Amino acid sequence: MAGTSGFPSSSDPIRYGAHRDQFVEAWSPSGRGGGPHPVVVVVHGGLWLDSYGRGLMDSVCADLAGRGWLAWNLEYRRVGSRWSGGGWPATFTDVAAGIDVLADHEDIADLGRVAIVGHSAGAPLALWAAARPGLPDGAPGAHPGVTLRAAVSLSGVLDLAAAAHDRRSVVGPGVIRFLGGRPDEVPDRYRLASPVERLPLGVPQLVVHGEHDGTVPPGQSVGYARLAQEAGDEVELRLAPRAGHMDLVDPRSAAWTATADWLDRGFIRR
């Protein structure tokens, strides 16, 4: 899995389903032995559209692997064409299956030290995944096979109903398309999918947002963090000064460095 040059590189696809987008790329640390390694599941954004994919997170995965993590870059079915197959509930069951397939790779993955990071539209999927133990029987993703120990939201859409109602944001129509209706039309989907509706998640969380984010309003993270803390979760909110939407997944940025440092020293790699 590691490149011969000594720099981290991705594996051949690890499939968790038959659809073309049901696979994971594992970025393994170089020069660290065969494992098992602590894991960061990485969930990309892109408004859940099939025109955006896992490549958005390649540089982040390389940085994590360079720090000694197994970066689990999860692709999933999205929306946008008749071949995409994503949306509710397919995207959620994909994320669940893409995490649970880690249990088949204990030779490289330390299942006792698994965190998750999601950016933008990937952040609600990441925090939803952390909340899976609390999902009711029969809900998509209930009864996880792998336990997540910490979760990170980067520029996240964490209150899906509020986003759907926000006519000033480009995210609103995307949420409605993704979940197949407005909150008043499919309320159960919002109740099961939206991180703010699943509180408390029961795991430590880092919530990061750029103060200059013009895509997802910073109020999404501020409001979520307040409610999560009130619900009893251990949540750290960081507003990154002078940072825009994509700065949070740029390994050269102070915001990403602080995020990776939080993972390194915190709840996973003790």
Description:
With 270 residues, the chain is α/β, with parallel strands linked by helices. It has one domain (14-263): Alpha/Beta hydrolase fold, catalytic domain (Rossmann fold), CATH 3.40.50. Helix content is 28%, strand content 17%. It has an eight-stranded mixed beta sheet, sandwiched between helices. α1 links the parallel β3 and β4. The longest helix is centred in the last third of the chain and has 12 residues, at 219-230. The protein is globular. The two termini are 25 Å apart. The relative contact order is 0.14. Mean pLDDT is 92; it is low at 1-7.
Uncertain spans: 1-7
Give the terminus-to-terminus CA distance. Answer: 25 Å
- Helix content range: 25-40%
Question: How many helical elements?
Answer: 8
What is the typical, i.e. mean, pLDDT?
92
Strand content: 15-25%
Give the H and E element order: EEEHEHEHEHHHEHEH
Briefly summarize what is shown.
The protein is α/β, with parallel strands linked by helices.
